[in-house]
Specification:
This protein is mainly α. It has helices at about 5-35, 40-45, 55-65, 65-75, 85-95, 100-110, 120-130, 135-140. The protein has two domains: about 1-50; about 55-144. The N and C termini lie far apart (about 80 Å).
């Protein structure tokens, strides 16, 4: 066997092993998603050093169970380093017109009142001014 054929065979086998591992990881994540065990998706993904498409998973869950999707979204941003972009999460809520869940998510996610979160705070205010002005009035009067 020449060196070239050995390298080609080894790389091919490594690629095959890698692809099989990815397929297995995705199947495990899919099983967790189908059974509603979203907290296990996050823990398992961290354990095997795999980053699933959290926005896709969130969008899928929102179609089935918006309240569980809210809990999953909150889980995605509970660490100092969020697993998904806040703006993308808000976009998913808004695609489904889930203003109440989006408001709840943002109130929790923006509780640290960081200057970098100003645009999202403005977006929260805008969406509620358009759909639920009483929520805005309550927020404004309670902070005075």
């Amino acid at each position: 066997m020449t060196l070239l054929s050995w390298v080609t065979k080894t790389i091919g086998q490594t690629t095959l092993d890698f692809n099989l591992l990815n397929i297995f990881v995705l199947q495990v994540i899919q099983c967790f998603a189908e059974t509603g065990q979203f907290q296990k998706i996050v823990m398992y993904s961290k354990k095997v050093n795999f980053t699933p498409d959290y926005i896709f998973l969130l969008r899928s869950l929102m179609r089935i169970n918006p309240e569980q999707a809210l809990q999953f979204a909150q889980m995605l941003v509970e660490d100092d380093e969020p697993l998904a972009d806040l703006n993308q999460i808000v976009d998913v809520f808004m695609e489904m017109n889930l203003i109440q869940q989006c408001t709840s998510f943002l109130l929790d996610a923006l509780k640290n009142n960081r200057p970098s979160e100003g645009p999202l705070q403005t977006r929260l205010l805008e969406m509620n001014l358009m759909s639920a002005p009483q929520v805005c009035w309550k927020s404004i009067t309670s902070s005075c």
